[in-house]
Amino acid sequence: MDHDSATSSGGPTPGTIPLDSAEFSRDPYPLLATLRDCGPVQRVRTVNGRTTWVITGWAEARAALADARLSKDTARFFAGRPSHRNLAPAVSRTLLATDPPDHGRLRKLAMKAFTPAAVARLEPRIREIAARLADALATRGSADLIEEFAVPLPIAVICELLGVPEGDRAAVRRWSNTLFAAGDPDAVVDRASHAISDYMTGLIAARRDEPGDDVLSDLIAARDDEDRLTEPELVSLAVLLVVAGHETTANLIGNGMLALLRDDTLRSRLRADPGLLPAAIEEFLRYDAPMTIATFRYATEPVDLGGVRIETGDVVQVSPGAANRDPARFAEPDAVRLDRSTGHLSFGHGPHHCLGAPLARMEARIAFEVLLTRCPDIRLTDGTGAGATGGTSDGASDAVEWRRARL
Ligand code: HEM
């Protein structure tokens, strides 16, 4: 069966679903539901002409994320193909783009800098940064919550984590936005990849000479028996931490606050009982996934999944946004409910499960606590309700009306 045109007459047409359109960025859920109605694994042509399998069913998404036949090794996939790209190796060859056995070795070393103790050590400093940002908001009549809180908090945290000096943070944020958003021309993205890679190389050299109380120094020192991270591995991990941990966490804070600002009862409940925040954060992660669609995978052999055959060489994308609202897994999937046992796939699943998940959860908890206590009268200036999901927070203004919150 040709899944590009798998549709009954008058029904949804997966082949024409505009996954990279402004409409999708504004509110992906109706389109993802239409796609899921066609079947849990669908072949889709994107606006730029690429063909990809999109996995929208929860059970199929979970299986795909843990399936070793679906490779993350981009270099292997593109080997021998002509390319006009000039991405820095630190960006194209990361932990996230590595398969076993290399992946396990790199991940074990990287985990040494993300122990519960290392993450807990950051809490007072995160609280300080969040309080400073919230106090600046509270002095104003109205403010852009994304630009002035949700984005600056995670970038400041990652820069603290890596020991990036204050004066360099704006540049790091710019490069990271360019790499994550994927909306710029290839040449601009390539240049940003080299700039951030050169910057991290310099920072690592400085930390090697003079270790500090930061994760970068921990990673330089990280050893496993006699194994340690090589220089290129260190650089690429530092770049990955910035790119993977910045926009995603900003989206969690932004999407979660939007859900809270739309629900007065929930907001009052959380203000009265901050002990509910961890459950609320899991539900925000499910309800409005910070990454609507996760990173690419490539089939290294045929894979039968969700009633279709994915052929060797096919590109596969799992959609946590769709899987998290699969009615086969979650009752009332379009409602925010704190009484669920979660099981969302927002942090992925399997060997590449998000390394920074404990940090992101802690940042979000602090962000909501601080906003609810320091800005008690916070509310939306308008209720248009388009979220920040999946897009760049520096992106199109038509998608971000809701960001202006009255304080
Ligand atoms: C991997 C989501 C925050 C570091 C991933 C993956 C997802 C994800 C879905 C797996 C991608 C895939 O398998 O295709 C998120 C979300 C976050 C978040 C939703 C915030 C709410 C962070 C933070 C950091 C981080 C704060 C670190 C500072 C990483 C790394 C990987 C990863 C290093 C690669 C792990 C591996 O390949 O083994 N993240 N992330 N993430 N994330 Fe996160």
From TrEMBL:
Keywords: Heme, Iron, Metal-binding, Monooxygenase, Oxidoreductase. Signal peptide: none annotated. Residues 1-23 are annotated as: Disordered. InterPro entries: Cyt_P450, Cyt_P450_B, Cyt_P450_CS, Cyt_P450_sf. The keyword Iron applies. SUPFAM superfamilies: Cytochrome P450. The keyword Lipid biosynthesis does not apply. Residues 1-11 have a biased composition (Polar residues). PROSITE patterns: CYTOCHROME_P450. It comes from the Bacteria. Belongs to the cytochrome P450 family. This is Cytochrome P450.
